[in-house]
User: Fold these one by one.
Assistant:
Number 1:
Amino acid sequence: MKRLIILAAMAACSAPAFAQQAPLRDAVARDYRENLGALFDHFHRNPELSGLETQTAARMAQELRALGYEVTTGVGGTGVVALLRNGEGPTVLLRADMDGLPLEERSGVSNPSRARQTDRTGTEQPVMHACGHDVHITALVGTARQLAARRANWSGTLVLIAQPAEETISGARAMIEDGLYTRFPKPDYALAFHVAADVPAGRIEVPPTLVASSADSVSIEVRGVGTHGAYPHLGVDPVLVASQIVVSLQSMVGRDINPLEGAVISVGMIHGGVKSNIIPERVELQMTVRANTPEIRTRLLDGIDRVARGTALALGVPEDRLPVVTRSPTETTPPTINDPETAAVVRDAIAGAMGADRLIETPPSGMGAEDFAYFVTPESGVKGVYFSVGGTPPERLANAPGHHSPLFRIEPEPSVTAGVEAMVVGAEALLARR
C-alpha cells in the first residue's frame, strides 16, 4: 500500500517534470524494470476465464487508482473504466482485454501458469494466457502511467478500459450495453493493440482499413425420423442430411461468394446418434462464420438458413421436422475496420516518434475476429485504430506456435514496451494541444 501511495503522488505531483527529464523510450524501459516486468509476471501466472476475471479486474483497478485515475469497476460484468481529465479537447478510449483461455500451459517459459478455475458450467479448467492478453493489460497500466506523467503534451480526456470476455467475443458489447458511452465520456477515438506471435518482437503494424473479420457462432439442429439402420427406407436419416448440409455450405462459399472476398464457414462440431445400427432422430452441427464486410456476412448467414432448409426438403425431411438454425446472441461480432484517416495519423506519429523502421506490413494470415469492433461501429461515430505489436524474437519466428495453443509464448519486455510507446504516441497525436 505504501508503494501505491508513492506512485499516486508521483503521478499527481511530479509527473510533468519526470517527462521532461527522460525521453519516452527511456521512461518506458525504466518502468518495465521497476514495475511492469513484475506486473506481467503476476498476470501471466494468474489468468482467469472469460467473464470471471474478478482478481485481474481488481488488480487493474488498484493499479489505475494509484496513478490518479477515476476508476469504476463492474462495468459489463468485470470490466474496469478509468478516467483522466486534462482540460479541453477530444476524448480518447484506450482498451485492453484481460481474459485467458481454458488451456494447460506447455510453453516452456520460466513462469508458466498453473492456474485452474471453475467455468460457468461448473467444470474446473486449466487457464492460460494463450493469446497475449497479459501483455495488453500490462501495457495499459504502463500507458496510463506515461500519459499521466506527460499531461503537458496533451489536452482532453482519457478513458481507459480493461475489458472482459474478448475470447467469447461478448465483453465489448456487454460494456456498451452497460452504459460505457452514456455513463462515461463518449470517445471521439478508440485505440487498442494486439500482440502478434507471427510478427518480430517490437515491430508494429497499423492496418489502414480492415483489421479483423466478423465472427458468428451458428448451430443447426438437423431433425429426421429415426429407425433401424438395416431399414433406412422406413425413416429419414439426419446424419445424411447433416453431411449434405456441411458439403453444401462449402459449395456456397466457393460458388456464391466472389473469390476475392473473404468468407469462411467452418463446421467445428457434429454430434448425433448413440449406436451404429440406429438411425437417430437428430444431429447437431456447430460452426463459425467469418466475413470481411457486413454485406458478405449477411449473405453467409442468410445462405445458411437457405441451404439447411433446401437440403432437408430435397432429402425428404417432413415440413414439421425441418432444421432449426440458431445464431448465438453473444458469440458474434462485426468486422473490425480502422478509420483510414485516423490510422494514418497514428501510423505517422509512431513512425516519427519510434522510427519508421519499427513499422512493418504483413499479408493477411487468416480470418481472426476481435470484438473491439463494437466500440467503433459506424453508427457509434467513434473513429477506431487497432494495431499489432510483434511478440516473437526474429530467430524464433519460423517455429513460433500460434495463438490459442498451449505452446504459445511471446517475449514480454519488447512486446510490452513497444505497446506502451505506441499507445502513448498514438494517444498524444489524437490529443495534441491545439
Number 2:
Amino acid sequence: MSRFYATLTATLIIFATGCCDEKGLPSALRNLYSDNASERNKALLLMSKCGDRVESAVPRISQLLYDENVGVASSAAYALRCIDTRNARAALKRAENARAAQRSKK
C-alpha cells in the first residue's frame, strides 16, 4: 500500500505544479524505460506537462501505447495528446488504426 500512496503523492505533485520540472526531466526520461510500471506511469505524467519540449521522447512514448500495463498505455496516449506535435499526433493515429484493424479481424 505504501507504494500506491507514494505514486499517488508524486502524481498529485506533478498535477499541482502544472509544469515540467527541469530537474526531474532527465530521470523521467530514464524512467520511460523502467521495468516498473509505476515509474513509467509517473514519467509519462510528467511528460504530459512538458508539451513539445519533450518531442525527442515521442518515439519511446509511442512504444508505451502498447505497454502491457493498461494504465501506462493510457498515460502514454494522454502524454502524446498533451505534447501535441505532428509526430505525437501521427503516433496516436497509427495506434488508433492498428487497434481498428485488430478489431476488424475479430
Number 3:
Amino acid sequence: MITKNMDLTLEIIDLGINGEGIAKHEGAVVFVPFALVGEVVNVHIIYAKSKFYVGKITEIIKPSPHRTTPLCPHFKKCGGCHLQHLSYTAALNFKTTLVKNTLTKIGKLNVENLVEPCVASTPYGYRNKFSFPVGFSKVPFVGMYKENSHEIVKIENCHIQQPWAKPIIDVFNKFMLENNISVYNEQTKTGLVKHLVCRLEQNQLLVCVVTNGNTLPNHQALVEALKPHFNTFGLMLNINTLNNNVILTNQYKHLYGIKTIKMFENGLNYEISLNSFMQVNTQIASQIYTEVQNAVKNEVVVNAFSGAGYLSGLICKTAKHVYGIEIVESSHQNAETLKQENNLTNLTNILGDVSEKLKTIKDYSFIVLDPPRKGCSKQVIETILNVKPKNILYISCGPATLARDLNLLSTHYTLNFVKPFDMFPQTHHVETLVSLTLKD
C-alpha cells in the first residue's frame, strides 16, 4: 500500500494528458510530474488517495534520451509550460499520440490510420498576447501562477512569448516600484493592480492594466517609459472590482494612444482589441485557416461560432458563399464591420445560437465548427445530426471534448482525417483539425 511521504523507485511507462509521467506500483497508478517515458526515478509521494498517487522526483536514476535542459529558469516553478524538459521532436510525437489515444478511449473511434503527425511550430517566442498576474513580495512584480494554485511566481521573462514581452515586464515592474503602486490582495480584497494584459500585432501594441479601481496613479510615467521601446501603442485600464477568476470585464478606460490594432492580413482589413478572440500563435493559425480555405473552394459554407468574422472573411476568398453564426452581439457587430470594410458580398452574418440558426439556412455543403474549449453543446450536435450537412470541418483546442463530440457525430459521419497542430509549444495543449463526411 502506498502512503503519503513514502519513497519509491519507479519506471515511467507513459505520459498523461498533462504531460506528466505515469508509473505503476503494486497495481496502483502514480503520477510523476516532469518524468519521461523510460526513465527510472526515485520519488517522494506527496499525495495519496485510493488508487491515485502523485510523486515528486528526488533523483533521476536513468534519464530519457529525449530529456533536454529547459530554456526558462522559471520552468517547474510557474504553471505556464509543461514540456520544456522534453525534446521538441518528442513533444510533437506526444501530442500526436495524445490526440490518437483520446479519440480512441473517450470517443470510441478507430483513428489508428487517420491521425496525422502533429504539425510543428516555432518552439519558443510564438505568443502574440499575454495575461500576467501581479504579485507582491517586498516589492510589486509581474509573475505567473504556479500550477493549480493562486500563488504568483515572479518572472523576469517568458520564453514562449515574443521578444517584446520582456521590456514590458521590466518597464512595468519599475513603474510600480517607483510610483508606489499597490497590488491587489485576494484575501483582504484591497490593493489596486491585478493583472497586466498585452497584445502586439503588426508593430502595434495594446497595454492594459487590470485594476481594482478606476484610476492608475501617474499613468503618464508608464507611457513615457514605454515610448523608447514601442512606436505605436495604447494604454488602457480594465476596471475589475470582482473577487473571482475573471481577468477582463467589459469596463475599459482609455488612457493613451491607440484603442485597437488595425490589421491587414491575408487580404483582409480588420480591427482587434484586447478581448477579441484571436489565436495566440499566428504562424499555426494561418496554416489551419489555409487548410480550411482550400477545403471549401467554390462551396456554400456555414461558419459556426464565427466570432468577430476573421475566419469567415478568409473563407469568403475561396468559397461561393459564407454564413457566419455568432451569439455574442458585439462580436457579430465586429463581423458586420469586417464585411463592410472588405466589401464581402458573399458573406451573411447571423446573430443567434448555432443550434437554432443552423436550421434556417438552406443549401450549404460545408459547416466549419470552431467552438470554445468546452466544445459543442448537445443541442448543437443534435441540430447538426438533424440537418445533416454533407461535410464538417471541426477545429478543436481540447482533445477530450473533441472526442466526445466526434463520438456523437460518428453515428452519421465518417472521419476523413485528424490533423493535430502545435498551437501551444512547451505546453500539453494541442489544436486539432478534423474532416468528416456524411455517410451514404
